[in-house]
Hints:
With 287 residues, this protein is an alpha+beta fold. The protein has seven helices and eleven strands. The longest helix is centred in the C-terminal third of the chain and has 23 residues. The protein is globular, with a radius of gyration of 20 Å. The two termini are 19 Å apart. About 7% of the residues have low confidence.
Amino acid sequence: xxxxxxxxxxxxxxxxxxxxxxxxxxxxxxxxxxxxxxxDEAQLEVASRTDRGVHARANALTxxxxxxxxxxxxxxxGVSPEIFFSAARPVPDGFSVRTxxxxxxxxxxxxxxxxxxxxxxxxxxxxxxxxxxxxxxxVPSEAPVWRKIDGVTAVxxxxxxxxxxxxxxxxxxxxxxxxxxxxxxxxxxxSLGDLQDAIEGRRRLTLPLAEPERLVxxxxxxxxxxxxxxxxxxGPYLRAALEAREAAAVxxxxxxxxxxxxxxxxxxxxxxxxxxxxGEEPSAGAE
Length: 287
């Protein structure tokens, strides 16, 4: 099943005692709605586990149920207004949702005070294979650890720089450390040569983590197409999205009123580089 969520109110994906997580919310909802008899019965497995604050547009999961894809989509879209399901298809026994063809993340970096050309130049270095010792969390190895990457691009959007990162899988925290490396190059503290040396395994960098709240798991792709899609234009998740957008617009107006000169100030791009604890154990293919 293809699904997404607003990660703002969750302590990441993985179920944790005493914390609200995406997995925990889904399992509680499946049992509450009678889709499964127990959480263990669901045999829930996810393609990419996300950290605290990270969002998803098109993650994927498998679960075991006698219900059809269309019925499951209707049921699961009633679990939580912050979680939405968009597509489904049956898979054979033994299928692993983690064996995706590719994963695509998108990071939204504020454009103010950033040099897009420097972001593009840094992004262009990430191609084919990357030594992830500088760009992953907890990669203890004296020798380079190579991981395939399909590419990193940076383009300007409405008030933001959109950084797209594609690979078959990512090591823990890799996306956010790559973004931190691009930031460091933009502000002049990391040269293109040093960044390339790290990518090619000739040196190790110590990089912070970019903020999780700006990261979206954009899509997990497979060789086979989805068979059933949601076509409804109404639902608790759509209403929640509209309410969140309205609240954000109101807050922006309030802040403009409180600090009317704020639009003329340059915010330092290295503010907020402090590391965030995702509260999860690392896993292959997770970010």
